[in-house]
Amino acid sequence: MPVTPDDARLMDVQQGGRCFFCDGPVGAKATFDHLIPQAYGGIDDPANVVLAHRRCNQRKDDRLPTDEELDRFFALRRSSRLGVWPPLRALRDGDEGADEEERWMTVAQAMARER
Ligand SMILES: [Zn+2]
């Protein structure tokens, strides 16, 4: 389900009004960044979305979140109703030191289980 205005407000509070990527203040100019890009099957749902500056969102482009970003995301979502999309959990729980291709494979398999 797409992010509702209520979800966005809660995200803003939980991120402390800061951009997920650069930690700078973002406020009302925040854009929705999909941690697993929609172009690659990421869902448009709060469980896959963070608030970010437009420029940080664009700079991130279509890569997967790093381990450090996943750790921060999981910390933000601990006991939050906004939740975590299972493929993000699969990615975090994947092999340490996996290369980008292996990480994409992990995500693809987890997304297949969601359908
Ligand atoms: Zn930013």
From TrEMBL:
<dbReference type="GO" id="GO:0003676">
    <property type="term" value="F:nucleic acid binding"/>
</dbReference>
<dbReference type="GO" id="GO:0004519">
    <property type="term" value="F:endonuclease activity"/>
</dbReference>
<dbReference type="InterPro" id="IPR003615">
    <property type="entry name" value="HNH_nuc"/>
</dbReference>
<protein>
    <recommendedName>
        <fullName>HNH nuclease domain-containing protein</fullName>
    </recommendedName>
</protein>
<keyword id="KW-0614">Plasmid</keyword>
<feature type="domain" description="HNH nuclease">
    <location>
        <begin position="7"/>
        <end position="58"/>
    </location>
</feature>
<dbReference type="Pfam" id="PF01844">
    <property type="entry name" value="HNH"/>
</dbReference>
<dbReference type="InterPro" id="IPR002711">
    <property type="entry name" value="HNH"/>
</dbReference>
<dbReference type="GO" id="GO:0008270">
    <property type="term" value="F:zinc ion binding"/>
</dbReference>
